[in-house]
Design a protein that fits this description.
By secondary structure, the protein is an alpha+beta fold. The protein has a domain of 154 residues. The strands form three sheets. The chain has a 24-stranded mixed β-sheet that branches.
């Protein structure tokens, strides 16, 4: 039996050698793979760090890096940091440490908590290693202000070139959980921060624009922003000057986070510029805009052109074209961020955004604006409104109407009261003022149109009218006073003037009896002038003659009781 076996191997020596060579080759391959794997990590690590240093002209740190050659090349790293270049001497900005060494950055330009990629084991000398997707986790980009980059690359940086034997070409980058911070060196301003839930970059090239799709989370009002566009090429000398252009969609933004107003806003638009300086064109729709104190909803649509300072979010609106209900108006101005502080009297002031706008209404409908301040959706007045005003809204936790300031003027034409009783009394005033008491008693004149104009201010939800002029055919009423936006309280005093004399206003035998009193109420030899007051509420105004002021202004007072002394309306 042994002789037979020996004869077999002697007869098949070639097979014996083939098996031996194969075994040795497998052993050598295993050793080679082990050696290659051991050497691949530092080689790839060095290639990644060197490539990033050459591109960003900056120091690059990588805490850990591991490679696997099973099923292609798999790599993952942790703690990647790319530092901004040293700052120009003599200028310090956020993110630098002036105490240790002037201009030394204390925060990385880019830091990545984790990254990983996979690529087939194919490599040709002189050609880049192509990576289909790089996955990132925990990406933070902190762009220093422009003054930080007021320098030229050092000779060592400028002299570096892409001489590495191993280069990478990346097609796509995906990341979940990223933050972009644009620092500012402007006094009293806060940096602008973006929380990015997800972003995907495609066609990634160092010297060409890359495409992006991203989902951002807006903190206030809370909502989701979907945006896509192009960015780049990345500006190594100053990342804040990196070009960007795209479109956005802002969905389900709940305005009730701003005390005093409510509604669900949606916005779409486009933007272009650089990271630090953007021009935005867009529109917003809030179909259920309302003041929370009243609850009546009106559709609000706006179209805007804005210039945005990307370092702090300050926005200049140039202009906003808005439509509330059926009324069109425009606004121009700014929305700027302010830091918390104290006044000269030691009062603490909250931080936030301060709004300053110039508002203009031409041909608006008064009822659209008054319905917002109505709990039942019915406006007190209708008419054609023209208004010019400066609007300021200060930051703070108080409701919007308590923080809002207005200073301007308005005119109202073709006005009518929606309350039938009040409108009838206005008609009677007009007819009596023209010397037509008979028509007034018959109820004619209910369709009379009136007009008013005044300068006004508003603070703490109280409107002050300094020179309100209310006119109807035959009469003019001049008033000064206040109106509570939330309470509806009226407090006005002034004078009522009519074309007709008081006897002509009353008519009949009573009018004849009053002829001797005409001279006590005449103004410049004709007509009637009496001091009046208006009190009560917007729903139930109370009109009356101010007898106390009559005694002051008319030395020959006809007496405390004058027939027909009350102006149309309720007496007090």
């Amino acid at each position: 039996m042994t002789a037979k076996r020996t004869g077999f191997w002697r007869r098949h020596r070639a097979l014996k050698w083939a098996l031996g060579v194969t075994l040795l080759a497998l052993i050598a391959l295993g050793v080679g793979v082990s050696v290659a794997l051991h050497n691949a990590e530092p080689i790839l690590r060095a290639a990644i760090v060197e490539g990033l240093e050459q591109h960003f002209h900056a120091r690059v740190e990588l805490d850990s890096f591991h490679v696997s050659l099973v099923d292609g090349l798999r790599a993952e790293g942790k703690g990647l940091r790319i530092w901004p270049p040293p700052q120009v001497q003599g200028i310090n900005a956020p993110g630098t440490n002036a105490a240790s060494e002037p201009g030394t950055p204390t925060r990385p330009l880019i830091q990545i908590a984790e990254f990983r990629f996979h690529t087939p084991l194919r490599y040709k000398l002189g050609e880049p290693v192509k990576i289909s997707v790089v996955e990132l986790k925990g990406l933070d980009i902190d762009v220093p202000p422009k003054t930080h980059f007021a320098h030229r690359p050092s000779p060592e940086q400028a002299g570096k070139s892409g001489t590495s034997l191993l280069r990478f070409e990346i097609e796509n980058i995906t990341c979940n959980g990223a933050n972009l911070t644009l620092e500012t060196d402007k006094p009293g301003k806060l940096p602008l921060e973006f929380a990015i839930a997800h972003i995907k970059l495609t066609h990634v090239r160092p010297d060409k624009p890359m495409q992006f799709d991203a989902e951002l989370t807006n903190p206030r009002p809370a909502g989701k922003i979907l945006t896509s566009g192009s960015m780049g090429p990345w500006s190594v000398e100053d990342p804040g000057e990196t070009p960007v252009a795209g479109s956005y969609r802002f969905e389900h933004a709940d305005l009730s986070v701003f005390k005093g107003i409510a509604g669900i806003l949606q916005s779409t638009g486009k933007y272009e510029g650089v990271l630090r300086d953007l021009v935005v064109d867009g529109q917003t729709d809030t179909p259920d805009f309302r003041l929370t104190s009243f609850g009546t909803t009106l559709p609000l649509h706006t179209e805007f052109h804005a210039h945005v300072d990307g370092t702090n979010g300050d926005t200049w609106l140039q202009p906003v074209n808005a439509t509330l209900g059926q009324s069109h108006f425009t606004a121009e101005g700014e929305v700027v961020g302010v830091q918390p502080g104290t006044t000269s009297h030691g009062t603490a002031t909250p931080g936030g955004h301060e709004i300053a706008l110039y508002v203009k209404v031409n041909g608006g409908r008064m009822e659209d604006f008054l319905r917002l301040a109505s709990k039942n959706g019915t406006a007190l007045l209708t008419g054609t409104l023209a208004l010019k005003a400066k609007l300021e809204i200060l930051p703070g936790p108080a409701p919007v109407d308590q923080r809002m300031k207005l200073n301007g003027s308005f005119t109202l034409e073709d006005a009518q009261f929606t309350n039938t009783k009040i409108q009838s009394e206005v008609g009677a005033l007009s007819l009596r003022g023209q010397g037509l008491p008979k028509e007034a008693r018959l109820g004619e004149g209910a369709d009379v149109r009136s007009a008013m104009q005044s300068d006004f201010t508003m603070a703490f939800a109280v409107i002050t009218l300094s020179d309100l002029e209310y006119t109807v055919p035959g009469a003019e009423i001049d008033l000064q006073g206040t109106y509570g936006v939330n309470s509806g309280l009226l407090s006005f005093t002034g004078n009522a003037k009519t074309e007709a004399k008081i006897s002509e206003m009353v008519g009949g035998w009573k009018g004849a009896l009053l002829k001797p009193a005409d001279r006590f109420f005449e103004k410049d030899g004709a007509g009637t002038e009496v001091p009046i007051h208006v009190e009560g509420t917007r729903e139930e105004p109370v009109f009356g003659i101010d007898l106390g002021r009559m005694r002051h202004t008319h030395p020959q007072n006809p007496g405390p009781q004058v027939p027909g002394q009350d102006t149309p309306g309720q007496s007090k």
